[in-house]
Amino acid sequence: MSLPRLGLGGRLVLILAAVVIAGQLVNGFLLVRAEQRDVIRRAEAVLADRLVQAALVHEEDRPGARRFLGRRGARIRQGPPEIGEPNPSATEQLRAALTEAGVAASNSTVRTVERERGFALIGAVELGEGRWLTTLTPMPRPRKLPWRLIALQAGVLTLVLLIPAVWLARSVTAPMRTLTAVADGFLSGRPSPPLPTRGPPDVRALASALDTLESRVLGALERQSVMLGAVGHDLRTPLASLRILVESVSDEALRRELIGGVERIDRTLADILTFASSGARPDLEEIRCEALMRRAAEAYAAQDVVVEKCPGAILGAPDALLRALRNLIDNALRHGGGKARLSTEAGGDEILLIVEDRGRGLPETEAARLLRPFERGDRSRSSATPGSGLGLSIAAAIAEAHGGCLELKPAAGGGTRALIRLKKPQM
């Protein structure tokens, strides 16, 4: 499982587990290092003590001194030891101990020797005339990190901390889930849960900001709706008067041309007003896909429009979705060889409303352009090309107002598939 797929709660728990394991590893490493240093210091102290005692006995020349030295593991030899590696810290400790004990030694040294079962310290004190008093102190091999013990401790500590960690993660993420549901509900028009009024100050501040934003957006949409109604009334009234005046023209050919121009202006105005209002938040209800698709095809009974099996249900505004589907059917009949096929597909938590044609197809690079307002497939603005260039834009805006989207894709057997992606109703 990759980290980007984990939610905030999962990441908190995962980070806590990682910190515990890393802490145990660092703690184990530091403990082993401290233990190793302690073993080395003890071995150096033992070596220094043995050499000091042996040197004092040798200086005093007591009876049985050689037997005492033998029991202490000390030997008198010619020349200093040459095996092993010099050990500066142990040498300094030995010289300090000799000085403190008042032993007159012209020179001293300590070397570290590696053996089969560990290491050993060889200390030597010069007695004069080329004679050296030497002794050896074994030192165990440094212990390796106890991986199993560290893993066991980390596992137990992680389990102990898991319950409060899960509780903490849920308490942190619960308000975030509520805010996400509020935002999703606002975008798709579904009823939203109440905003959280409890929790950390940051979450309460975010909830308050979202509440203010929602109120302002709804107010702007309401003002836009009122303005569009007024604009539509103010523009259509002079258009109706113009239509009456045009019908009084005596020249029949000129009259038909003028009437056609007025009708095109009226249709374009209607499309513009529809596009401007299509993003408004709709009133939603549960709709059976089969019934919706068949209602959309009723207006094309005399044309080659086929409705296949359309199982499933969606949450939407019937009139708005009918307008979107009929815009897609019009586009399919106009540019898709005069044929259109309606169907649905379900996948995961989505339902696709599909309008497919058998035209020459649509390059994927053109899809984004055609969803923009006033864009046409032939880039033409002549009166010979029907439509205002807003049909696909209106369908896309209606889909987005329902929390979905409109996609244009090449069909498998040629032609174009227009897909309206909508969420399934939440049970």
UniProtKB/TrEMBL annotation:
Reaction it catalyzes: ATP + protein L-histidine = ADP + protein N-phospho-L-histidine
CDD domains in UniProt: HATPase, HisKA
Chain coiled-coil ranges: none
Domain Histidine kinase: 230-426
Matches recorded under PANTHER family: SENSOR PROTEIN CREC
GO molecular function: ATP binding; phosphoprotein phosphatase activity; phosphorelay sensor kinase activity
PROSITE patterns: HAMP, HIS_KIN
Keyword ATP-binding: yes
Enzyme class, spelled out: transferase
Pfam families according to UniProt: HATPase_c
Gene3D superfamilies per record: 1.10.287.130, Histidine kinase-like ATPase, C-terminal domain
Cellular component, GO annotation: plasma membrane
Keyword list, A-Z: ATP-binding, Cell membrane, Hydrolase, Kinase, Magnesium, Manganese, Membrane, Nucleotide-binding, Phosphoprotein, Protein phosphatase, Stress response, Transferase, Transmembrane, Transmembrane helix, Two-component regulatory system, Virulence
UniProt-listed InterPro entries: 2C_sensor_his_kinase, HAMP_dom, HATPase_C_sf, HATPase_dom, His_kinase_dom, HisK_dim/P_dom, HisK_dim/P_sf, Sig_transdc_His_kin-like_C
Subcellular location(s) of the protein: Cell membrane
Boundaries of every HAMP domain copy: 170-222
Membrane topology classification: Multi-pass membrane protein
EC number: 2.7.13.3
Name listed for the protein in its UniProt record: Signal transduction histidine-protein kinase/phosphatase MprB
Entry keyword Hydrolase: yes
Transmembrane segments: 12-32, 149-169
The protein's required cofactors: Mg(2+); Mn(2+)
